[in-house]
């Protein structure tokens, strides 16, 4: 597991901000937060080594990252690790640090899908961090420039179809995944698919979907290019990124670029419905 100490606070702030924006995207992720009171600078390196040895023992093959902050707080953000394992690691770290240095140590564990808002608030308020604004720039030289923006501006947004169902666009090149999503969402929405980025530009302009499920890796372009174009033309769009790579950096990047959420493949039907139902609630409020 990667351990960060250089610029760890700034990088943790970015991750915490992404978690707070959409905790649902962090399904299966936990954070073990270790608090060390009054740690002096000359003991930081020793504490880092003690902590690293225990984490490597308990979480050697785990996916995630350790943030060793300047203040001495340690945040272990990891996926698919049980709470019991994290509790054992936390207890061992507390005991070892206290026995070797007499420093008082405590820990908290957050289940990020359910407690992500609380965790994000705790980190950002404590560290006095603020999220950077998200910028959406024009994308010259790509096929989406050929789509007339007037097609979008003339269309009603966030509205249900005449049948009362939300519109959903899936941008996905894999035929099996397209079939699986269509099958999972039958009777839940008005559903269309686009197998490429170029098709997605035209489909979005004509179909005006309430929710877009967007694969990151497309054959003719990057999914983030499509995301940027959609948000440039429709800043209120609900775009949820799809990827088989659920790495921490992938989720953070998606949220920083303005996505409404992130779903790691293989998906669960409940995760898809979460975003569709949330879109329907937004329509009702509007």
| Oligomerization state | single chain
Number of domains: 2
Distance between the termini: 45 Å
CATH superfamily of the largest domain: Response regulator
Global outline: elongated
Our estimate of the beta-strand percent is 15-25%
Would you kindly provide a written description of the structure presented here, covering whatever features stand out?
The chain is α/β, with parallel strands linked by helices and 286 residues long. It folds into 2 domains: 2-127, Ribosomal protein S10 (Alpha-Beta Plaits, 2-Layer Sandwich), CATH 3.30.70.600; 144-285, 3-Layer(aba) Sandwich (Rossmann fold), CATH 3.40.50. The protein is built from 10 helices and 10 strands. The chain has helices at 8-21, 44-59, 83-101, 112-127, 149-153, 175-184, 197-207, 223-233, 248-256, 269-285, and strands at 2-4, 29-36, 63-68, 74-79, 105-111, 167-171, 190-194, 211-215, 239-243, 261-264. The strands form 2 sheets. The chain has a 5-stranded mixed β-sheet, with helices on both faces. Strands 7-6-8-9-10 form a 5-stranded parallel β-sheet, with helices on both faces. Strand 6, helix 6 and strand 7 form a beta-alpha-beta unit. It is elongated. The termini are far apart. The relative contact order is 0.14.
């Amino acid at each position: 597991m990667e351990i960060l100490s250089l610029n760890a606070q700034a990088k943790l702030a970015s991750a915490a901000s992404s978690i707070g924006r959409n905790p649902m995207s962090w399904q299966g992720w936990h954070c073990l937060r270790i608090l060390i009171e009054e740690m002096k600078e000359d003991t930081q390196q020793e504490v880092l080594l003690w902590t690293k040895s225990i984490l490597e023992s308990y979480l050697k093959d785990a996916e995630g990252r350790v943030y060793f902050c300047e203040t001495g707080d340690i945040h272990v953000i990891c996926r698919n690790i049980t709470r019991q394992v994290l509790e054992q690691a936390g207890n061992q770290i507390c005991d070892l640090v206290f026995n070797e240095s007499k420093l008082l140590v405590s820990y908290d564990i957050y289940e990020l899908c359910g407690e992500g808002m609380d965790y994000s608030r705790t980190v950002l308020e404590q560290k006095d961090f603020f999220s950077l604004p998200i910028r959406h720039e024009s994308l010259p030289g790509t096929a989406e420039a050929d789509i007339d923006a007037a097609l979008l501006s003339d269309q009603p947004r966030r509205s249900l179809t005449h049948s009362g169902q939300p519109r959903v666009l899936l941008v996905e090149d894999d035929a099996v995944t397209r079939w699986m999503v269509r099958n999972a969402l039958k009777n839940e929405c008005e559903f269309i698919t686009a197998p490429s980025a170029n098709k997605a530009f035209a489909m979005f302009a004509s179909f005006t979907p309430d929710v877009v499920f967007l694969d990151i890796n497309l054959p003719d372009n990057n999914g983030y290019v499509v995301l940027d174009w959609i948000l440039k033309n429709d800043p209120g769009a609900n775009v949820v990124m799809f990827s088989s790579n659920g790495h921490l950096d992938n989720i953070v990047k998606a949220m920083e670029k303005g996505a409404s959420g992130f779903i790691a493949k293989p998906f669960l039907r409940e995760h898809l419905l979460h975003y569709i139902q949330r879109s329907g609630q937004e329509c009702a409020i509007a």
